[in-house]
Amino acid sequence: MTTEQLLQSLRFDGRAFINGQRVTAKTGQVFDSISPVDGRILTQVSRCAEADVDVAVASARAAFDDKRWSGLAPAVRKRVMTRFADLLLAHGDELALTETLDMGKPVQYARAVDVNAAANCVRWYGEAIDKLYGEIAPTASTALALITREPVGVVGVIVPWNYPMIMASWKIAPALAAGNSVVLKPSEKSPLTALRMAELAMEAGVPAGVFNVVPGFGAEAGAPLASHMDVDCIAFTGSTHVGKQIHVMAGQSNLKRAWTELGGKSPNIVFADCPDLDRAVASAVGSIFFNQGESCNAPSRLLVQGSIMDVFLEKALALVPHYAPANPLLQDTVMGALVDHTQMATVLGYINTGKAQGAKLLAGGEQALSETGGCYVQPTIFAGVTNDMTIAREEIFGPVLSVLSFEDAAQAVQIANQTVYGLQAGVWTADINTAHSVARALRAGTVHVNQYDEDDITVPFGGYKQSGVGRDKSLHAIDKYTETKTTWIRIDNVL
Questions:
Q1: 261, 294, 375, 395: which is the annotated catalytic residue?
Q2: Of 62, 158, 283, 462, which sits most exposed with the smallest number of CB within 10 A?
Q3: Which of 243, 259, 238 shows the shortest CA–CA distance to 339?
Q4: Per residue in 266-296, pLDDT tens?
């Protein structure tokens, strides 16, 4: 089926998914899901609020307490999650097109990256279920101390709009693998794939009540979920501002575990001895413009050693036309639309601030394709940026690259670390000593060397400082959704 044929056949259901059924919000209220591609209304979505969250949490609690999921043998849960992954791939074209229409990313990447990454994540954690062992502590012979993992219970998940399927899978997959029940609140800006994923999970065999989805706005659905007294853990990805509120709500309610993956202003450091300058340029430009710059780990601060600044910028500017925004439904589009008009206005506001504060605009800086009714911004590059400028300090979440200059490694590290964030960083150098010493000095959860954004489900993802608490991906994520129990058994010597 062609994209156009699939587009004509798609019918979106915006109702919530609670206890295995599609349901309307208790109030009957809805909101429009508007495509940033061209402004069309895709469907109306249930505007869930506290009463709906209460029902979803009660459903999740009942499912957890009667052990319809957590009580299954690990091998059985593994088979269900494997089927879930298979169904994500089988419905990949539908999910990719839905993602593109809902939040604006190019459909080729929605299919090749987002769908595949979500399915791989679900499959990987499914495969891990029956490979996690407990421990026996090295006690004296008079005791047997067993150390076991138990699911934490009901997990609340709140995810952003930029990678709806991937961000959801990073949290629901390890939470489900560990035996928990889940209540997911997707962003109101891109809720449709999350709702479809819940249906596919149930089709795969996840019991009713184990995976619930409550679409709605943050203050109306997200806050009640984070504050709920019967939610044992809240996992959030989004802005640092909201993340701080999540921690307060968690603490003021039942002291639930709160795991937050937050913002970033990642530095990408290119030394004069970079072993492949063309690759560094392509990576720097491609990484900031990928997903329209709507990535928390985007290398939005490019630090270039002064002696190669001119040649680097010349090469970078030559690549900008390749990223001209276009209709994301076309297979050859590499940069699509921002998620909505509000985000577009925010990005354009930052661009105006950069110009006003003295940064030199080298490319872009304007809205694009305004005649479409969509939300497009030109790929934008600023040079002459200093770390005290707003565009170097604050997360823009758009296709805006700020280029800063440095003279030596010490200055590069100083500039790189001069931020409240610490999510990711990059280092480009041919000197192994420089690579290791700078990587160790950078306060970031991931440091890329001579590449940027290469990734795998086997490595943890998360940040230092105000980039959040805890790690997604890898086996480390299981720790967030389990309790560690010690069972101490006294042994009286009878021999």
A1: 261
A2: 62
A3: 238
A4: 999 999 999 999 999 999 999 999 999 999 9
Q: Are strands 380-383 and 360-363 parallel, antiparallel or unpaired?
A: antiparallel
pLDDT by residue (tens digit) across 346-380?
999 999 999 999 999 999 999 999 999 999 999 99
Bridge partners (DSSP) of residue 425 are: 447
β-bridge partners, 377: 367
Give residue 1's pLDDT: 67
CA atoms within 13 Å, Cβ hemisphere of 67: 5
**CA distances (Å), 425 to each of 208, 410, 428, in order?**
42, 15, 10
In this prediction, the residues of the chain whose per-residue pLDDT falls under 70 are 1
With helix as H, strand as E and coil as C, how does the chain read? CCHHHHHHHCCCCECEEECCEEECCCCCCEEEEECCCCCCEEEEEECCCHHHHHHHHHHHHHHHHCCCCCCCCHHHHHHHHHHHHHHHHHCHHHHHHHHHHHHCCCHHHHHHHHHHHHHHHHHHHHHHHHHCCCEECCCCCCEEEEEEEEECCEEEEECCCCCHHHHHHHHHHHHHHCCCEEEEECCCCCCHHHHHHHHHHHHHCCCCCCEEECCCCHHHHHHHHHHCCCCCEEEEECCHHHHHHHHHHHHHCCCCEEEEECCCCCEEEECCCCCCHHHHHHHHHHHHHHHHHCCCCCCCEEEEEHHHHHHHHHHHHHHHHHHCCCCCCCCCCCCCCCCCHHHHHHHHHHHHHHHHCCCEEEECCCEECHHHCCCEECCEEEECCCCCCHHHHCCCCCCEEEEEEECCHHHHHHHHHCCCCCCEEEEECCCHHHHHHHHHHCCCCEEEECCCCCCCCCCCECCCHHHEECCECCHHHHHHHEEEEEEEEECCCCC
pTM passes above 0.70: yes
| Residue 3 confidence (pLDDT) | 78
**Any catalytic annotation for residue 261?**
yes
Tokens of 218: 């943050």
The b-or-e profile of 263-286 (16+ CB within 10 A means b, else e) is bbbbbbbbbeebeebeebbebbbb
150 belongs to the catalytic site: no
Residue of 220, 296, 375, 395 with catalytic role: 296
pLDDT value for 7: 82
**Per-residue model confidence as pLDDT tens digits over 209-253:** 999 999 999 999 999 999 999 999 999 999 999 999 999 999 999
